[in-house]
Structure formats: structure tokens, C-alpha cells
Amino acid sequence: MGRKSVQIMKSNKQKNPKIQKNGKQILPDSLWRFYFKYAFRGYWWRLFLYTVLFAITMSDAVLYPMLQKAFIALFEKTVPANMSFLEFAMPTIFLFVLMFILWDVCFYLRTTVFAHWKPQIEQKISEFLTDYSHAQSMSFWTGRMAGSINSQINYVSQGLNCIEHFLRMFFSIGVIAINVVLILGINKWVAIIFACVFVFRLIFGIAMLKPMQNAAKAASSSKSFLSGKIVDSVSNFSVVKLFAGAKIEHQHLDAPRKKSIKDTVKSLFLSRLFWSVPNIVWDIAFGCTLVLCIVLYMNGEMLLSDIVFTTSVFFSVMGLIAQIVNTIPPIVEALGSASKAYSELVVPVDITDIDDAPDLVVKNGKIEIKHLFFKYKKKWILKDFNLTIKPGERVGLVGPSGAGKTTLVNLLMRFYDPNKGDILIDGQNIRDVSQDSLRKNISFIPQEPTMFNRTLRENIEYGKPGATKKEIISAAKEASAHDFIMGTEKKYDSMVGDRGIKLSGGQRQRVAIARAFLKNSPILILDEATSALDSETEVAIQKSFDVLARGRTTLAIAHRLSTLRNMDKIVVMKNGRIVEQGTHKALLRKHGEYWRLWNMQSGGFLQE
Prior knowledge:
alpha/beta; 6-stranded mixed sheet; 4-stranded antiparallel sheet; 12 strands; elongated
């Protein structure tokens, strides 16, 4: 799948794109095409209104010098005999005030429109890209840090700030062109000075644009990398405390900090150079303009009102050029950051559903793994792997590290697709059903269950969104979690902390088991779910697992072989193949690989 055919799940009927199981949407590889196709949809009339109001407020750069000229010209004209000078000047003064009020009102309306739709669009982008990230394959998350992804989503959202800058630049160029034409009507030499300064700034700006853009991208990349490193360091504060690693973390972050500083300093230097050199040219040009105006006035070729108009236009035009100059760096930086972030987020989804993929229907829970091959980089992890798990059968999976146990589970969950072979559940190939329905039919409990920084109730309810209070409590009791929950300060409304830091390992496992009870899936997978627990806690958790496994097709990975004694079948893996399978007693009688592993154990744990 190429960059221009990145596919995500989306309902075409929705106004705001969502990740859905049916239908595919091609996500543009261009940041601006993404903005126009998704972000602006539904907001075009507001954007049009904002543009009109922007044009009106920017018109002051043309009309204000003309009003000044008209006011000064009053003093050069003859006042009619039947009125006072004040009466003669009142229409001009009234026009002055009316225009100022119009500009102020339009400015207020412009900022009001902007303040209403910009946050909505930013949240729409954030929502869409977050959904897209959640729809990504497991390979997308490998090697990526959550903090870095969050920063990238924010960069794409903040790229919308460029709209105001672009409009300002567009209308500024138009105002400059109009003013140069007006000055040309007064004196061509003054107009030539204006044109020369504008052309110089334009050429200088274009020449500086590429280096500034590269520097801004480098600075953005460094900041994003540093942000991810900091989040990683802070989120593992318990490890830092345990190993007195504050100095280690300081040294670990030192290099990315220095690189971020270096790249940012370079970017800011080019930005300063971008506007400081043209400013000097501006100062010299203004001096030349003043000299020229005086010479023309002495020769009777220019009126006082023309001089006021010329100097006013000069400051207006130079101010607009300065705005353009000062606007380009933040545009370059924002677009550079947004473009880079977007390109890193919008990568092909490795694991996709077929068109109109049906839901997996599990009636019995039979699992068939046929001739499975899987290669990671250049190394084969599974080679011609075959296994059948009967409905309701409990199967233990053992073997040394690297045997392919976790890989097999990842393939069964369809986090990855095999290079060759098939996995069938009740005769349905998991490639041919929707991923969501597959995972809804499997309860997976890892060694270290992940908890949201939410309440105990919300973490358990994640197994069945919308579950009643009675259902949640019932699941907690079945998982032997109810008693410890009732002992917390706010009971089921107690917060668990970041990744469940407020809970012990056994308590997190109980919450995970309660979540699995509530989910009530016909297939259960346990990935070394008790190996990190003490013996007493393991026994209690094991009892909950036994209850949970009743009537469910169960696949359990364990290094602590004692936990697999009661399994219906134990499968021994080595180098990506099955070398033995049978019951605990039958395998011990064979004096084969399982017997060797059993005798290597110390305290019931398999030594690698």
C-alpha cells in the first residue's frame, strides 16, 4: 500500500469522519488536502465570512492614508463663504469616525468567528487522528512513544494557525499593490522606491525560505523526540526511584536537550536574519523617500497633502511588508511541524479488514492453526506451525524465550498477519472477519495488565461498555476483587493512578480478571499472567482463572509450569515448532523437552 493509498475505516454517511468497520477511505498524503477534505468540511460558510471580514479590516491600510490626505487637503481648499471651516470639515470628520467604527466592528466580528470555529476544527482534527492512531496496526506502535504521538497530533491541529497568517499575507500583498498604484499617480519615482523595496524583500524572502523551512523541521523533530523521551522518563518514575536513577535520566536526556537547543537556536537565528536585513533596507529607503518629497515640494510638483499621503502610505506599506516578513517564519515553522507530524502519523495500515468484512460468530470456540509461518525481519519465528484447540479445551503453551509463544498469541489476536498459513475459529478464517469482532470474542490478560488513569468502575466496565452497576460488582466478586475495592477510599469510584500505579500487581490482575468476566468472551488467552506475583497472590489469582476458564476455550502461556498442571493439554514449543504435546503427567513420563524444563525449574519457575 503506497503513501497515496493509506486506508482507514470510515463511515461515508458521517459528517465527521470516524473509524468504522465497513467502508474504506483514502487518507490524503498532503497536509492541506487533509485539511480541505476533513477539517474544513461543514465550516466553509464560516471560513468565507471570516475571509470577508478580514478583507474589510485590512482595507484600512488603503483607506486610512486616503482619509488623511482628504483631511489635510481641507486646509488647502477655499472654504465657502456661507459656512464655517468646522462645518466645511464635518463631512470628512464624520467619514473618518464612520470608517473607524466599521473597522472596529468588523474586527470584533472577525475575531468572534475565528474564536468559535478554530477550536472546533482543532478538536475535530485531534479526534480524527486519535481515532486513526487507534485503528493502526501493532507495528505502528512498536518503537513509538505515546507522548510523541500526542505531540504530533497537536502539531497537525495547530497548523490551522497558518490560515490567519495566509490571509494576512494575501491581503497585504493586495493592499501594497493598490497603494503603489496610488503613489504612481502622484510621482513615479516614489512608486519606484516602493516597488524596489518590495521586490528586494520578496527575493530575499524566497531565498531564505528553504533554509528556514529545513531548520524549522529539524527543530520540530528535536522537540518532538525530546518530548517523547521526557514522557518516557517521567512515566517510569517508579523505576527511577528504585534505582536512584535521577542522574542517569539527567544524562540520558542531556543529548536530546542539547540537540533541541542547537536546532532551535539555528531556526531562530535564520528567522531574525530573515527580517533584520530587509528592515535596514527599509530605513534607507524611507530616508530617500523623505529627500525626494522635499525636492518635489520645493519644485512645486507635490502638495502638502500628497506628502502626508506618501509618508502615510510608506509606513503602511512598509508595515505590511514587515508583517509579511514576520509572518513567514511562524508559517514555515507551523507548517514544517504539522507536515512532518502528519507524514509520520499517516502511514499505511498493515493489518486491514477485507471489504464489508463480516463479524466473527463464535458458537463453540474451536481454534485451528494450519501451516503457520511468520518471519520478523530476516528471522523465522514460526515455521509450519500446526495446532488444534477443541471447544472449551484448556491448553498450556510452554517453551524457552524466543520459541514463538507470544508471537503465536499476537497472530491469533491478529495484531500481525502470518507470512503463510491460516488461523480459523469455528471454521472462519480470522483474515476474513472484522478485527473488532475477533477481539471482542477474545479475553486477553497479559502479565502486566494496563490500567487507565480512571476509576476502578471505569476500568472494569471497559470489558462491557454500558454495563450496569450490578454487573460490574458481580464481575468483581467473581474475580475476588470486590473486597479490596470496598476497602479503598471511594470504593468503585477510586482512581487507580497512571497505569494503575495505586494498585498492587495482584490487584491489577484482579481488575483485569473482572474486566474479562464482564466481557464474557468465549475464548480466553493468558500470557504469563501470574509469573510476576508472589506465591500467595498467585494461588488466589489462579483460582479466579480456573473459574474464568470454565466453558471457555483457553490458551495460557506460562514459564511457571506448576500453573499448567491442570490444563487439558500442554504444548511445548522450541524454535517456532511444536516438539511435544500432552497432559502434564504424560509429558513427564516421556522424559523429553517438558521433563527437561520441569527439572530446570527453581520454585516452580522456568529458568531461561
